[in-house]
Structures are given as structure tokens and as C-alpha cells.
Amino acid sequence: MIAPKEPHEFGGVGGLGGVGGAAPYKPAGFLVPEGPVGVLAIQGSFELHLATLRRLGVRSRPVRKPVDLEGLSALILPGGESTVMSLLMQKYSLFEPVRKLGEKGLPMLGTCAGAILLGHGEGIPQRLELAPVELQRNAYGTQVDSFTATLSLKPFSRPFHGIFIRAPRILRLLGPRGPDGGEGRRHRVEAVTLGELHGSPVLVSAGNFLLATFHPELTDDLRIHDYFLRRFVSRKVEEPVLSVGRLAVGR
Hints:
Blueprint (H helix, E strand, L loop, with lengths): L36 E4 L5 H10 L4 E4 L10 E4 L4 H10 L3 H9 L4 E4 L1 H6 L14 E4 L10 E5 L8 E5 L4 E5 L18 E6 L2 E7 L2 E4 L10 H11 L7 E4 L2 E4 L1
Parallel strand pairs: 1-2, 1-3, 3-4, 4-11
Antiparallel strand pairs: 5-8, 6-7, 9-10, 10-11, 12-13
């Protein structure tokens, strides 16, 4: 039986080596998802997410049109410009299909702009409103106000180097009835804070959603993606597994 690691053990060697030409990083106990992990590839830092998935030895697929959503094990919404990303999702008929997949339970990771789209908030852009989290865009200022910070995140025993570029701030975690207590989109899950900066959540888990207000894809540290894949994507192993070639399958 493959036993998953405890949360503080995730990514024990994450961050070692460069992305370019590096050997795939496959920590012990990791189960490769059955279908590819999609990365929304219409704007933003999608290439860096795809490179990270390659290092993790996981099949990936750029998502640019609705047909690209078929058969995915998960979807990553990258950092970028949230307004442009939202408009392009609508232009290419991706907005509603992505929303429906999220409602059906497809695991989704949103970083920075991706987190904005997954959550709630006032004004532009139009948001998917899938995760019970309210975010403010560009909360720390303009591009010149971007910064880095050492983050203490609950899933990890070692600090994580957070890169915040025109980053959003999570204002509050919402209840199951949405931002206004009943009239908005309802949620079947509640949000849990996995890390804070100056009292504001920067990493939040909510059902099948993981939201980061920073850019893990801009670092050489694989732990956020590793955590997402293990805790949200990989199937749980309840029975002994048989090794078949390079894959492990249940009886």
C-alpha cells in the first residue's frame, strides 16, 4: 500500500535543480493522475506551470478551447492579467465550461490572477465564483509595488519563497451561502487557510480548489504543485497496489 505523506512532509526535495533539462521530480508515494492536468493557456504564465508539471513527471495539456477540457484530471489557472484572462475565456467559450467542471468537482489550482477568477470580488473582472473566498485585485499596489516574502505554509516544514506581483489580497473566507449571506452563489464547501502574510490568507484550500495569491510557478520550488497533485488530484489508495511497469494500479 502506498501511504500518502503527512502534510508537513510534502515536497521534501522540492526546489532543487533547474527546470530546464532537470530530471522529473517524483517523490515517494506519488501517484500519477490518470488523465492530463490542464493549464489554461490563453494568457499569463502558463508555460511555467507546464514546465513544472513536466518536472513532476505528470502529463499536461494547454487549454485554449473547450475540447481541450475533455478528460482532464485537474486544471490550473495561472498568474497573469485577470481581466484579460476572463475576457478571453468568454471569447473562446471557456468560461461556462470551466465553471461547470469546477462545480462538478474537477480539482483546480489558481495562482494570483487564477485565484482571483476562482473566487468572488467586486468590480471587474467577471469571476467564476467557484471558491468561497473574496479577493481584492492589485491589493498591494501597482507593478512597482511587487515584492517577495518568506512564507510559513501549513503543508510544509520549510519556508516557501513567495513572489507577489500586483498580487490580490484575500479579504475574507465566505460561508456556504456566498458573500451576501444567501442571495449569491452558494457553495458546498468551506475555505481553510493554509498560510498567511501579515494576517491575510495567501494559500487557501476549499473543497476541490486551491488558491495561492502568489506565484509558485516563478520559483524553482515544486512543493505547491506537488501538494495540489497529491491532495487534490491523485486517487487515494485504499487497497494494495500492483506494480505494472512504471505504473502502480489497484487490484
